[in-house]
Amino acid sequence: MTEAATKRPRGRPRKNGPNAPVSAEAGTGGLSLQFSLLKKIRGKNRANRALAFLAQLRIPEGRTAGKPLKLAGFQKRFVRGALADGVMVGLLSIGRGNAKTALSAGLSLAELVGALDAKPQPKREILFAARNRDQAKTAFNFLVGYIEGLPEEDQALFTIRRGSKLEVEFEGNGGGLARVIAADGKSILGGAPTLAVLDERAAWEPAKGETLENAILSGLGKRDGRALIISTSAPDDTNAFSRWLDDPPPGTYVQEHRPAFGLPADDLESLLEANPGATEGIGSTPDWLVAQARRAIARGGSALSSFRNLNRNERVSSESRSVLVTVDEWLSAEVSPDELPERAGPCVLGVDLGGSRSMSAAAFYWPETGRLEAVGTFPSTPSLADRGAADGVGERYSQMFDRGELTVLGEATVPPGAWLAEVVRRLDGVQPACICGDRFRNAEFVEAMNAAGLSRVPFIWRGFGWKDGSEDIERFRRALFDGEIFVAPSMLLRSAFSDAITLVDPAGNHKLAKARSLGRIDAAAASVLAVAQGARMKATPERKPRVAWL
């Protein structure tokens, strides 16, 4: 027991003896105080009370287990932001192993014992929510670990249940209950939590996760509760956690530790940006992060994508399904505009003609130099902002438009002839050597080429099925891996390739497909067509002119 808990107060003796609860002078608003750690907490500011409470806890596990809990700078910033007046939801996105779950468990213990408010509500309720019970159990174990580090007199006030339900009940200061729930919103309908921790929100299943989240947030309003939504980055912009970060509603505090996209995986400065605890003795050390990054680079594939997502906190899919190309494989082709090769030699134009309301995309490829360019076009209705909201990508389309990578043409549809003519004008008078497109859109392409004055340009018909698609994908990948593609940084192409996957038949043939129904892979499809045809042209031997004998 601490000195503050054993010292008798001056003045008149207590009426009920030395073991009676401490009076409301400790700042509990009249509720009985039966917890020694609350004696050092003063004032009405929730953040300051939380920081004072956390400073008295001991680290429950790890290489510094048993030592006093010392918060890092980024942790203090999150506590102050998430517990500020007017904030209902606190969002924390950070790399794996930076004690975000441990911090939220400490705040949960503070709420459980009534430390966050000078006049705490009685019968407080804390929820640990996660995709499944095992994931939620992580935060629960941290909570129990903090309790086990308390003085024995304080531990006696807690009842820990580890049966079919994971619960911790606190008997003093008005009482409180902390419990674990999984992603089944029906199980908490009617609840009224005062604090909810939504752990690893990016990993929740979309349908069940939305149901659970909505049930929790609706329950928070009954008692002016707060939610802490913590997670590493989601794999894409359409994830619910990404939407929270990119478009936070009023009353939301956002703290995101995500480095700029496109940096090398072993770049130390950006690693520390995603893992600020590394320099303050929390989680992985800087040397370990760099070493792990280089191992991931050497392994490549899903290992590197997983490292970027979990350790670098980047929005990169870590799924092991067959992606067209990984993020790092595509980034190897990106060069600065000053280093981009010239437009020399014949140009191949790959075209993916969109439907009535979808994107049309074109890609230019110069096989002799390896230069690749791409452009996409949407109809003007709906607007790019509305279309981005509907597709779950926020302002991405508007940013592409500002960068000159995306254009708008037509009203409800993109007119094929006018669009193809506009695309060819980007070549500054140079006529493409050939055009590649989908054979199933034969009639539309013929009409568009006639309208654009390109009827004499050879057209190479390709299919997007198993036969032609598998060959084109393999040629594209080979050209990329052999360093025969050079492209300026393009948000349009990055977005398209992040949504592009391949379906594999039993014979091992690949064909292009979308990773999500709202994904836009048109620019990726056009690039595959152009590069594959360019590779065929390079592989075809040049015909020598015949000698005419006189």
**How does the overall form come out from the CA principal axes?**
elongated
Number of domains: 3
The residue ranges in which pLDDT falls below 50 over 5 or more consecutive positions are 1-33
Mean pLDDT: 85
Structural class: alpha/beta
Describe the structure.
This protein is an alpha/beta fold and 550 residues long. The protein folds into three domains: 21-256, Rossmann fold (3-Layer(aba) Sandwich); 268-320, no CATH class; 337-538, 2-Layer Sandwich (Nucleotidyltransferase, domain 5), CATH 3.30.420.240. Helices cover 35% and strands 15% of the residues. It has 19 helices and 16 strands. The longest helix is centred in the last third of the chain and has 18 residues, at 522-539. Pfam families: TerL_ATPase (PF03354). InterPro entries: HMGI/Y_DNA-bd_CS (IPR000637), P-loop_NTPase (IPR027417), TerL_ATPase (IPR046461), Terminase_largesu-like (IPR005021). This is Phage terminase-like protein, large subunit, contains N-terminal HTH domain. Residues 1-25 are annotated as: Disordered.
